[in-house]
Design a protein that fits this description.
Layout: H1 3-15, H2 25-29, H3 36-44, E1 54-58, H4 63-76, E2 81-84, E3 96-98, E4 101-102, H5 105-120, H6 127-141, E5 146-150, E6 167-170, H7 178-181, H8 185-192, E7 202-204, H9 209-221, E8 226-228, E9 233-240, E10 245-251, E11 253-257, E12 260-264, E13 269-273, H10 278-293, H11 300-308, E14 317-321, E15 324-327, H12 333-346, E16 352-356, H13 364-370, E17 375-380, H14 391-400, E18 405-407, H15 411-425, E19 428-432, H16 435-448
Parallel strand pairs: 1-5, 1-6, 2-5, 6-7, 7-8, 15-19, 16-17, 16-19, 17-18
Antiparallel strand pairs: 2-3, 3-4, 9-10, 10-13, 11-12, 14-15
């Protein structure tokens, strides 16, 4: 059997199990999330997650970027570094990589065959649980020296929460997946704080007070030192261009002097990021603090090199400058507010043609409202995904807000229409609303421009 056939059969096998990422919110609310299945599977596999240091990351937004920054820095420091993230954009193997190299199709197919008998012995496993186990096993087999693991959904009951990390990281918290995690920031923060392990350092991005109080309480109960960005670690923005931005980070350290704890001043470090937007500065400061708290030996020079070389597509990714084509993954109200700010910072007063699609459970009106006044036209489209909402419902919502909107499906048709309009108007083409939509825009863009 050739490798591609084996790979496609492996994907068929993985997708034959329950995949909650493809379920509607009503089904998610009834989901049987627990860690017993995952623990049983990892025991059968020899607990590979215990064979290397792990940095574990939860959050509503920014966790993927934060993971990518940490993994890039660890690679730059000379560590053989695993990175496990979800969902993927274009190819399933993007979820599992070492030093920016995706697991090969052949290797994934081989690992699927290896875990099959163990999966058969543990009832009711899900697609994500099996994939997580494969990623953790692959890292052990490849003898990684560190791994950065991103939570899939929530934290407390997420499949990745079988790990015992060197540091627990909580990125920006906001409203998302409320059917599963709860409809208040207190409840959401409680689920995310579920990754906090007794005695393990916790790094938190800047949080709204309601969420911060929960994180402080859980960290205190579990006797974990908590570092809060903006408090123990401060940062300031430097210059920014369409290529990069810079920031200065300053950590406040403490020492015992004459029987009392006093703060020491620390020299600031200047870092460059190819990831754009003020929210990425928070992610960078969070990643920096987490690396320093991990106990892994890593210099500021290695962190600077890793951050400058990070690759994380579809996060305000400018794939063309004239007229601009921007791919973004914003998919809730909070991330759309950050997207609106980034547009203002980099393209003030420029009109936008928005290619927009979304899952049916999202606050579509809230997202679109943040860009009202900037968006000249919304092209309502639909990704090939079972949770995708019909374009006509997006049009209805946009019309109620007084935003011009027309249906344009499938996604490739929406991109073609946007390119035609922008050729005359010079307006920005922006894809956002769903990672699945932006992934399809990226694929269509690469096909048009013959990018492999």
């Amino acid at each position: 059997m050739d490798n591609e056939t084996a790979y496609n059969l492996a994907l068929d096998y993985l997708y034959s199990f329950v995949d909650y990422s493809l379920k509607k919110s009503s089904e998610l609310a009834r989901a049987d999330f627990n860690l017993e299945r995952m623990r049983a599977l990892m025991t059968r596999l020899g607990n590979p997650e215990q064979k290397y240091p792990i940095l574990h990351v939860a959050g509503t937004k920014g966790k993927g970027s934060t993971c990518a920054l940490m993994a890039s820095a660890l690679t730059a420091a000379g560590y053989k570094t695993g990175l496990y993230t979800s969902p993927h954009l274009q190819d399933y193997v993007e979820r599992i990589q070492i030093d920016w190299q995706y697991i090969s199709h052949a290797q994934l197919a081989k690992l699927v065959e290896q875990v099959k008998p163990h999966v058969a012995a543990v009832p009711k496993l899900t697609t994500f649980e099996i994939t997580t186990a494969i990623g953790l096993l692959y890292f052990a087999q490849q003898k990684v020296e560190a791994a950065v693991i991103e939570v899939g959904l929530g934290g407390r009951l997420d499949a990745t929460n079988v790990v015992m990390p060197r540091v627990s990281v909580i990125t920006s918290l906001s409203y998302d997946h409320m059917a599963v995690l709860g409809n208040t920031l207190t409840l959401i923060a409680g689920e995310k704080a579920g990754i906090i392990k007794p005695g393990v350092p916790v790094i938190s991005a800047t949080q709204k007070e309601e969420a911060r109080v929960v994180l402080e309480r859980v960290a205190g109960e579990r006797h974990c030192p908590l570092t809060l960005i903006g408090r123990e670690v401060s940062f300031s923005a430097g210059e920014h261009s369409l290529d990069e931005q810079t920031l200065a980070i300053c950590s406040k350290s403490k020492e015992l002097s004459k029987g009392r704890t006093v703060e020491k001043s620390a020299e600031s470090v200047i870092l460059r990021l190819p990831l754009l937007g003020q929210h990425q500065l928070v992610n960078a400061a969070t990643a920096y603090a987490a690396l320093k708290a991990s106990g892994l030996k890593i210099s500021d020079e290695a962190i600077a090199k890793g951050f400058a070389n990070v690759k994380w597509p579809c996060r305000f990714e400018i794939v063309r400058r004239t007229p601009p084509v921007i791919l973004d993954s914003a998919h809730n109200g909070d991330s759309f507010e950050k997207l609106a700010q980034t547009l203002e910072d980099y393209f003030p007063n420029r009109g936008v043609i928005l290619i927009f699609g979304s899952s049916e459970d999202k606050d579509i009106g809230g997202m679109l409202a943040t860009l009202k006044g900037r968006v000249k036209l919304v092209l309502a489209t639909k990704a090939v995904h079972p949770r995708a909402i019909e374009p006509e419902k997006i049009v209805e919502t946009a019309n109620r807000l007084g935003i011009r909107c027309e249906p344009a499906a499938p996604v490739a048709t929406a991109l073609k229409r946007a390119l035609e309009l922008a050729a005359d108007s010079g307006e920005i083409i922006l894809s956002a609303g769903s990672m699945f939509v932006t992934a399809e825009v990226k694929t269509a863009w690469e096909k048009i421009n013959h990018i492999k």
